[in-house]
Amino acid sequence: MSFVHSAVASPLVALLSALGVALLADAGAPALLGAQIPVAEYATRRSALAARIDSGVVLAFGRREPVNHWPPFYQNPHFRYLTGFLESNAAFVMVKRGGRVTSTLFVEKPNPRQALYLGDRKTPQQVASDLGLQARFADELQRVADSLAASGLPVYAISDAQASEFVANDSLSFGRNFVTDLQRRLPRVKVADATRLVEQLRAKKSAAELALIEKAAVISSEAHVEVMRTIRPGMQESEIQAIMEATYRKLGADGPGYTSIVGAGENSTILHWPASFREAKAGEVVLMDVAAYYDGYSADITRTLPVDGTYTPAAREVYQIVLDAQKAAERQMTPGTPRNVPTDSAYVVLKAGLTRLGLIESPTASFDPPPGLCPGTWANADGSCPQWYLYVYHGFIHGIGLDVHDPSQFSNVSPNQFQDGDAFTIEPGIYVREHVFRDLPQTPRNRALIAHARAAAEKYRNVGVRIEDDYVISGGKLRRITTAPREIDEIEALRRKAVIQ
Fold this sequence. Notes:
Low-confidence stretches: 1-35
CATH architecture of the largest domain: Alpha-Beta Complex
CATH superfamily of the largest domain: Creatinase/methionine aminopeptidase superfamily
Largest sheet: 6 strands, mixed
Shape: globular
CATH class of the largest domain: Alpha Beta
Number of domains: 2
Mean pLDDT: 90
Strand order of the largest sheet: 4-3-2-1-5-6
Strand content: 15-25%
Distance between the termini: 18 Å
């Protein structure tokens, strides 16, 4: 069943077609992806990595085949960036010696029995033909790696953790264990972590990458619009998720870019609430952080909707503050802007808004947190924490690309400024939890805060609002590439139609 209304199908088809998105003739047809990353671009990426090291051996590992009841396989982002190879259990070895560079892909041997379940695997000859990379079977990898390491060449290992935020805790991945075993066999081998080098290369998106990110954003936006038209009081969070995912899959997306977040009522105040069976009720908001993965690249969009036709006065007030904060950050986005400037601008708006609502005493007021609530990033010298942190507790801007939290020039490349080739989100939020003061220590400072904000916390309780859009900088200009409505009047117009129908 199509979730795309006929009234908007033609404009949407025209827009997606203009961007090169292939639409499906019917829901059962295989997805026809748009423009791929050119094979020559992968070679350029590998050359750029080789230029950043002296003589040595670079090791990178693809994702292993899933072992729990056949979930979808997604390639490791670093590995995909360097090779474009999309099968499991592969590895990449680059050798630079005396200025000469050779690259080899190690691939799983075909297995007739596994082929019945997973399909045929590419042979080394097919890899060479398709990707321009010499290839060997993976059962030769250990012997080749040992031989290269024993020759005295240093080894540059690239993490096969999903993203940089998980590298510190990675002790179980295939790549980490492979390198550990290599060092155990050859204690004199020198191993360096080359992950950061790849992250710096990935930070600046090519024109082909930006095009794929934009396709993911446009498709994801239409999924959000479809929900704006169709949700009604009594619908479960999981039903909302299903509408979203069915819509963007019909429009050619590979699948979700991350676990879909759909939270109604009190669940809207939990940052990563996975869609459950709670019913969305009249008078509540539902927060939907849901986006698609298209040809390897993920969008990242959040909208917060009134479950019935209009926002309550309380939800409207909170929503407008968050929207104003997002726009304040947008206005700062030009090439050369330091990464902290847009965030600082958003904070000014959020702090002033929370003060105006009566949820905090002032933009600079503090409270005494319980252990573990306020990380060192936000804590004051005396151990107190800003009062606004009770309602605003996540970052606002991050890169997007092969991973939903992707490297970016403003985060990964000195001098940490926004530049052409950056793709990222802006996602401010305010979350008024029902028991926001429950765990606070009974100190004079906290008692004063509670006395000041108790009535406001009751008025705005269970209102969580996040607004997230995707952006690219190219040709010296910022462009918002997500198209789902974000203005209150636009959203309410679509919501009222949904309730009436």
